[in-house]
Records
---
Amino acid sequence: MKFMGYVRSNGKVGSRNHVAVIPSVICANDVAQAVVGQVQGTVGFFHHQGCCQLPPDLERVTDTLIGLGCSSNVGAALIVSLGCEGTDHERLLETIAKTGKPVEIIRIQELGGASRAIQAGIDAAQKMVLKVSGIQREPVNISNVTMSIKCGASDTTSGMASNCVVGYLADKMVDLGCTVVFGETTEFIGAEHILAKRAVSPEVGEKIYKIVNRMELRAKSLGCDMRKGQPTPGNIAGGLSSIEEKSLGAIVKSGTRPIQGVMEYSEMVTTQKGLWIKDTPGREPEILTGMACTGAQFMVFSTGRGAPQGFPSMPVIKVCGNPNTFNLMNHDMDLNAGLIIKGEKTIEQVGEEAFQKVINVLNGEMTKNEAIRYFNSIDIYTMGPVI
Amino acid sequence: MEINMNLKLALKVHDLDNVATIFANDVVAGDEVEMHDKKGHSQIIDVLGEVPYGHKIALQDILVDEKIIKYGEEIGVATKDIKKGDYVHVHNLDSTRGRGDLKGEVVL
């Protein structure tokens, strides 16, 4: 099975060919935004981190931005630095450069302020766009693909229809030799024993318990009732009564194949194959960033109540389990798994439609969120306080 | 599975489940729903209260502190006695996980 992808000089294959504009710190967002607004073919990663954080978080922010810049969906990268931030922008520059793709950095303080940095940024980004826009797609084996998975704005149809479709797809992609990554550790709570049983080794099983315990302790550390946060008010209105119920429905989307291991939030896929967990929270901006950082060429996103957002460099295919939502939010939903609830289609039928959609999107067909550029809410998942 | 869409439908996911999810709008007390399971069995349940689309009803009487089961697994415990046909949600089902508010809660 093949698709038409952008083959990079390091052998990685992209489904998109963006020039990424990467602010190394929140203070550089406005300059980066101005560049992205002016230069066609660019996308920006406007996050809120990068300074006044403890060392493990600063390292994580640097690593995550490296992962985003190294992603094969990015053909070239422009780093926008303020100049005095905590992020290691030199390491960011050097590591992205090692992929062989064009990468440059502009420093706002050195250039004499925002307006001059914007001008320099536009000039640099324009050059990069002209360079990468000529790259042609080539036929490549689908085993080069990393698929990422997420469910959001869930209701009870998610666990009974759309997540089942995503699970079917996950199994199929694993069987084709791909890498599949799922996360949302918060939503393993109450279902971790089922995942641990699917681990390839006792060590991987223990790691699953460990990340769930870590997440549960973070919730408990505030000494309050987690139920105000999970399930979300929207989940509750959609019929989900407890985190356990949400989790049991959520893990369905990982399919049935063995779990090979657990990746940390800012880890990239290098040689990993098969089904993997990435330790992430459930909230969209942070998990989507973590999954794009993995190097995933696309995401399959299951929803019941209707989540419209995507990610700048990673197409996000929306599979909707609720037939009412699919009709109501037709401009945001890519696939209707609600027909399963209505008894009009089987999981396998919608699963095969989803697979065809995946191939189309890998080949360049836009997802609904891409077409309307609904992808600017991104952020990096940090562990400690802003100080 | 053949489903008559004129019926008010509820789905039971797993044999062990003591709740089913209703996929019909405007279900009120006195309505009947047809509960289907994955094996194609069906059963008529008298609904005792108003239940929104996608929410659950009890398939049997569940006593306070008893486990509520969906997907064949525990999704919480009953905080009140629940009758067959009752609406089951956050008013009578409580999570036992991830909470800092429970006294004596075991931290692993």
---
Amino acid sequence: MNEQHRWFARSWMVMVYAFLYLPIFVLIAFSFNKGRPTHWNGFSTESYAALAKTPEILDGLIVSLKIAVISAIFSVIIGTLIAFVLQRYRRFTGKTLFSGMANTPLVMPEVVLGLSLLLVFKSLFKMEGGYLMIILGHTLLGAAYASVVIKARFSELPMAYEEAALDLGAKPLNAFFLVTLPLIAQSLISAGLLVFTISFDDVVVSQFLNGPGVKPLPNVILDNARQGAKPVLNALGAVIVFVVSVVLIAGSIWMQKREKKRNAEIAAAYRDAT
Amino acid sequence: MKLTQSSRGKWLVIGLPYFWLLVMLLLPFLFLGQVSVSEMENGGGFLKIYRHDGWFFKDNFIPIWNDIINGGTYRTAYLSSLYYAALTAFWCLIIGYPFAYFMARARKELQPTLLLFVMLPFWISMLIRVYAIKVLFNDSGFLVTSISGLLQRFGLIDDPLHVLGTPFSMMFGMVYVYIPFMILPLYSTLSKMDPRYWEASADLGATPIKTFFLITVPLSKAGIIAGLMLVFIPCVGEYVIPQLLGGADILMIGRVLADEYFQNANWPLASALAITIILLVIIPMMILNKYEEKAGEFK
């Protein structure tokens, strides 16, 4: 790339990043505003005080946390099974249907998923809306995403490890828990985090499946945001941005360090061997 | 391999997730189909399975199709859903492709950081980000008032600008939320591309622009199609962004469906609308499946 192109490339990237971050920065700035949420009136932390005193939001947060943690655990378990079957069994009766179903939640509009789940839960299973229904719905969605992440890890993991364990006399279940699982552990963690965020963020499926008294945070936010801009929402947004950024940046630094350490260890092992 | 050969274990390992998918996915879809050809029971919500005279499509599908042919609410809703989804996919491609390309050609050690900052908004609650746009575009907000003031001073407009609740603010929100879905598959295809193609093209005398359009773009076709579909399909059923940024007069099918269920308690009609959405996205979905494997892992 010559100088002119490089200049063009840089300004394009800066503009896209500005596009991605401008609304977020404005939201954070206005969370320190006095009074109205969109018009600058001077610095104040009153919207944070208001946030702490809004029980509806805190309740929603607790509901969402419970649902997201349980959905993430279930999704990782089911997602691992789906990924294992897709990646390790080349052929079995009904594989086309299986892989088709495994991908469907990723591409189906959520209104369709939400409505179809609701109809079955209510009419066939006679369930009342609430925790169990939302968790099942989020797990359906989450397991599909988890299986994609875990499948990628399986595909780069040679079967030789498991085969060696079996040749050495391990039972299949032991081989899975003692050999395969530790090797895919990192992808299980990232899949779990992904599902946690998806569940924590989901509003459509929850809207269809929620019952009396069970209102996840995004649904609280949606109801409030519909009525217009509100100071508490600015403060809440700023808090969410802060928490996510800290977790994500710390996580990525940690991963890079681990990678470096691992590469150093591999290099050292080679040196010793030769 | 022994692990996959022991047959009792094999059927248990396959059977568990299979059962889950059958009960949680196939059964609901089949049931949705059944409800869509059922009668609505008066007094709300409940339904009789199947019509007695066997004229399955009469109650729900025929009115929807009539409406689509004759130009009523549903036609407006389906058309605007398809239109805005296509437009969103288009803008995501126009903005995202150069971005993904520059990112793929950036210094190798810089790329993880560049990628992290594309992904970061993706992890922040989508609702909060959409709400942030609402704050940004608010009539009394600093952005709208200052641009309005500027334009008024130059005599370009008479009345203050009104952005929130227009197609523009909704499109802005949709592109904003969905652009990572475009950038990631594109980046994944482009970063895997062998740089020797570009060098060869340059050696043979092509200008960078020519190389870009004759070599890079055709070679990244799989990524382009995966990106377009990953944006287009969820946008067709988008429910939240039109409500918060689109105003009352932009009717999208996801919202019509939800209203039919929640407000009119007409389960069969809502189901028939859902089936029609499925039919609308099934063809793009098949295209996506064909190209997704080629575009590689991007999630």
---
Amino acid sequence: MRTTRFVALAAAGALAGIGLAGCGAKDDGSKDAAGGAIAVKATDTACEVGSTTVGAGTVVFNVTNSGAKVTEFYVYAAGDRVMGEVENVVPGISRELHVELPAGTYETACKPGMIGKGIRGALTVSGSSAPLTDNAALAAATDSYQRYVQSQTGALLDKTTEFVTAVKTGDVAGAKALFPVARTYWERIEPVAEIFGDLDPKIDGREEVLEEGMEFTGFHRLEKDLWTTGDISKDGPIADRLLSDVKEIVAKANAERLSPLNLANGAKELLDEVATGKITGEEDRYSHTDLWDFNANVEGSKAAIAALRPVLTERAPELVTSLDSGFATVDTTLGKHRAGDGWKLHTELSQADLKDLSDAINALAEPISKVAAVVAK
Amino acid sequence: MFATYLIGLREGLEATLVVSILIAFLVKSDRRERLPQVWGGVALAVVLSVFFGWLLEYTSTTLLAKSEDRELFEAVTSVAAVIFVTAMIFWMRGAARSLSGELRGKLSDALAVGSLAVALMAFLAVVREGLETALIFYSAAQSAQVDGGPLYALIGGVVTAIGIGYLLYASAVRINLTRFFTWTGALLILVAAGIFKYGTHDFQEAGVLPGIRTMAYDISGVLDPSTWYGTLLGGMFNVTAESTVLEVVAWGAYVIPVLLLFLLPGRRGSGTTGTTGSASGTTGSATGAAPVAQPAV
């Protein structure tokens, strides 16, 4: 009996000791250096890491599994030393990984099915471990962009509410008119929205999300009903969900601390959006209001660059010049297709028009892709 | 969906196995009065896991936010659980011995199971995986679509694990007493060895122990962890498709001496290893109900 008591006490004591050492040693409140999370889109065959260059410090990855297998996400240092990992990312959910990364080169890996070496990708961490935002100019840049996000999300919420009301009251014409307007505010800040994993496909997913086992909801679902059948009598619940999803993302976007790299990468992503979704006309395939989205993407990109402008002028003045001329060319090319307060429909553009737009975007994408490296210097 | 269900099953099994054997053991050795402590330990572990999971998921806490801190937490609690489970294995051995040709009443002499020890064992068995499970649940609840697919699949998996735990308990309490102690003891050794191997792996992942990439074997071609049998083997005995050399060494270093000591038919003596205490040292005085050791805390 004595022995048992002794063992119990000794083990309890040891546990308390180790436990305290284990939890207490690192609980020194290290601050998040890079405010925004890096979105990782994992499927059974791919591992898309939203940004492959980050600033040193605490890096947060938001891993979304849209495959059918359970996956794991790792960050490895040289020799496959595990810097951080998140396991048990079951299909259809997102999980976060917080990992402290000093400057250096790393590898990211998704492991669909929980075995093997995983789908690897390079990750470069630059700068000192002092957070990027410590730099006053960069901090000012993120603050300024944060204010832009706030103003856009406010308008997004107002216009989405109007749009949803029109849908629920059966006002087809009103809803059709509001659709591209509400989307404008969404498209301007889409890269911020993408940080929040699965909310993006819920709000802005196209019919292809069905193939990933998700429901087809949000803007495009309502768009399909408005423009194909004109029957929105059963869309009340869809409209309500859209509004609640938008409310959620607005709250999250305003609470999110963005990093300067989020801005740089966001500016680039918006142009990629234009190239892949808008020029092809696949984004708004029923309403053909792609040019509204096109313009909003470009405006959002411009806003991010404008926020970074003081930093870029100081560090890479020639880059600023080429960015300015790039945006000017895009604006002029797109300006030809204005129609009243809005834009021409995608179907009204000729192949030649689309090619001109595409060239203008590609010309701008080239300098924009250099911004992240300048910011991370 | 099935993949998600299996994850729930695996996480659930890792907690329920030890608890169900513990309960069977207490019921079998007429110590039902200890059951509230078991449930108390389980409840505390669940509450703590849910609370810490909530903190991590919905607040910007830095406590255990980093994966290596969580690995360390799991490693430490796993190794602590192994210590308690090992002590229990040797209580069983004492019980099995005092049964040989003696009266059942002697059991209470041989088994001085402190209520704190019982509660702590149940607590550790559940808490070591509880936080991770809670986090999976939160993320599933957050990203659940309207049909709540992942969440229901996870709940289904955990419920199945509890069902398996109950079946194990129900079949264990039915078998003959001597065989019960021998078999559940042996089963428990394998479970404990698995937990020990798991803890070793977590220490490696937390960067405390080296050799995370030094693999002993890789049979992922044969044993796919995403299959039902891969899940069961992983959840019950931590048999994994890829194991590091250190894990295998740790597993062997635990299993071989403990199994030998457990199966040795030797006289009552000091069946102790370096880290574990054996409570089989008391001789059966014929006083019937011996006082039970209450750890003075």
